[in-house]
């Protein structure tokens, strides 16, 4: 019998209820590592982890929801319970779709999150975290996220944390003719560089990265004058820049506070998770530092502008949510139906073997009896098959669970084997629709 589908349990620590420090406390060095750790728990069958600059979320599939909750409690560690949102199966499905659609982002509708969900999906797959339940859930979420952006205006305007950071810096400070420094060469850093190019009067752009060719690729993506430098050139780059956007994926700070001691008037926006720039730089009067929490002023405006599109996306999510629930229901019904047919096939095979040992039949006659047995099985199981599918559609899980217990095939042991009825078989025991298929010679042997 196919293993029964488990249920999803989820937990989210995000900007909605947690600070940057609390999100950092939950996040691990890599999503793959987090998934592998969750899969090491005996109760966990599947796992998915999404870690971004403003959220750390984990989802596990277990047979028992309580076991899933216990595993996720360990994942949270010492983080205050008030900062974490715990989700059951249905809440997890809806949350995944809302996240991928950008409705849970600091910047509503931002484009970067859909790529991050895809990356997290691939990370989980690479270590064996994705199977039937999460495959349906995560791929449906990605599909919803893609539709939200292609069919609505949810991503009009400021569409990334990188662009929100640049908008905030430009609003609060004069960037005309200055040099800007972007640290990092990933997706967020690239978006920040493009936002600097499109939204400001910055004259020159420096991109610093450990791998210089990657930094060169970012420089090539913008039209303003630029240069790529290695991380060893950061002191000189900081001295030259008046706007610094830090967006690496390094496990620790890229800068120490003293790097800005003599930098002069500088605007620093730290988008990294964990942080690239220590908070201590704010002690310098000439340095203004912003992190995720400071972006609320920009994102609040964006949120109000996108409310209409968000309402449409919410309806799409409702539709997709119902589709996904129906899909899970059908799978659960199919499990029970599969169990019924497996059990019936085993019993049919055992009874045919016993009957053939008692009857002297040629090959053609054996085929007729086997065909008759198949017909009986199919006719007997057709009504419960239909009933189980109806029960699944109607959320009648008591019927589903009862059927699972009744039909789970376990005919390998003498203790569970039902009594042998072949010795008492007569034509009267066979349905009218199948009786005519029995050759007279066999009926005579049965009567004897």
TrEMBL record:
GO molecular function annotation: glutamyl-tRNA reductase activity; NADP binding
Recorded name of the encoding gene: hemA
Protein name: Glutamyl-tRNA reductase
Entry-linked InterPro entries: 4pyrrol_synth_GluRdtase, 4pyrrol_synth_GluRdtase_dimer, 4pyrrol_synth_GluRdtase_N, GluRdtase_dimer_dom_sf, GluRdtase_N_sf, NAD(P)-bd_dom_sf, Shikm_DH/Glu-tRNA_Rdtase
Residues covered by the Quinate/shikimate 5-dehydrogenase/glutamyl-tRNA reductase domain: 168-298
Family membership noted in the UniProt record: Belongs to the glutamyl-tRNA reductase family.
EC number of the protein: 1.2.1.70
The entry's keywords: NADP, Oxidoreductase, Porphyrin biosynthesis
């Amino acid at each position: 019998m196919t293993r029964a589908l488990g249920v999803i349990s989820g937990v989210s620590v995000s900007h909605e209820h947690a600070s940057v420090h609390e999100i950092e406390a939950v996040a691990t060095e890599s999503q793959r590592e987090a998934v592998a750790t969750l899969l090491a728990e005996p109760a966990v069958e599947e796992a998915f982890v999404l870690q971004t600059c403003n959220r750390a979320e984990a989802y596990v599939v277990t047979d028992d929801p309580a076991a899933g909750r216990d595993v996720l409690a360990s994942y949270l560690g010492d983080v205050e319970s008030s900062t974490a949102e715990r989700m059951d199966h249905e809440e997890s499905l809806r949350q995944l779709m809302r996240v991928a659609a950008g409705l849970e982002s600091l910047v509503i509708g931002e484009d970067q999150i859909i790529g991050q969900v895809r990356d997290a999906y691939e990370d989980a797959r690479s270590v064996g975290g994705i199977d039937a339940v999460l495959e349906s859930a995560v791929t449906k979420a990605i599909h919803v996220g893609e539709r939200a952006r292609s069919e609505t205006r949810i991503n009009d305007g400021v569409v990334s944390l990188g662009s929100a950071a640049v908008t905030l810096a430009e609003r609060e400070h004069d960037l005309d003719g200055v040099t800007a420094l972007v640290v990092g060469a990933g997706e967020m850093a690239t978006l920040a560089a493009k936002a600097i190019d499109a939204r400001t009067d910055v004259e020159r752009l420096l991109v610093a990265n450990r791998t210089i060719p990657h930094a060169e690729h970012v420089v090539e993506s913008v039209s303003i004058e630029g240069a790529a430098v290695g991380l060893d050139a950061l002191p000189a780059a900081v001295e030259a820049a008046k706007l610094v956007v830090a967006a690496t994926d390094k496990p620790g700070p890229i800068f120490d506070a003293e790097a800005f001691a003599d930098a002069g008037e500088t605007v620093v926006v730290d988008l990294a998770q964990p942080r690239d720039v220590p908070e201590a730089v704010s002690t310098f009067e000439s340095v203004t530092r912003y992190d995720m929490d400071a972006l609320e002023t920009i994102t609040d405006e964006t949120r109000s502008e996108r409310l209409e599109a968000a309402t449409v996306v919410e309806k799409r999510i409702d539709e997709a949510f119902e589709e996904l629930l129906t899909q899970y229901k059908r799978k659960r019904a199919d499990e029970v139906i599969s169990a019924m047919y497996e059990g019936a096939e085993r019993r049919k095979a055992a009874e045919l073997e016993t009957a053939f040992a008692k009857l002297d039949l040629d090959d053609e006659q054996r085929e007729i009896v086997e065909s008759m047995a198949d017909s009986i099985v199919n006719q007997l199981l057709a009504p419960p098959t239909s009933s189980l599918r109806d029960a699944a559609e109607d959320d009648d899980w008591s019927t589903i669970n009862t059927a699972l217990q009744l039909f789970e095939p376990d005919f390998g042991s003498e203790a569970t084997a039902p009594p042998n009825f072949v010795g008492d078989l007569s034509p009267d025991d066979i349905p009218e629709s199948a009786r005519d298929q029995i050759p007279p010679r066999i009926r005579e042997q049965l009567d004897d």
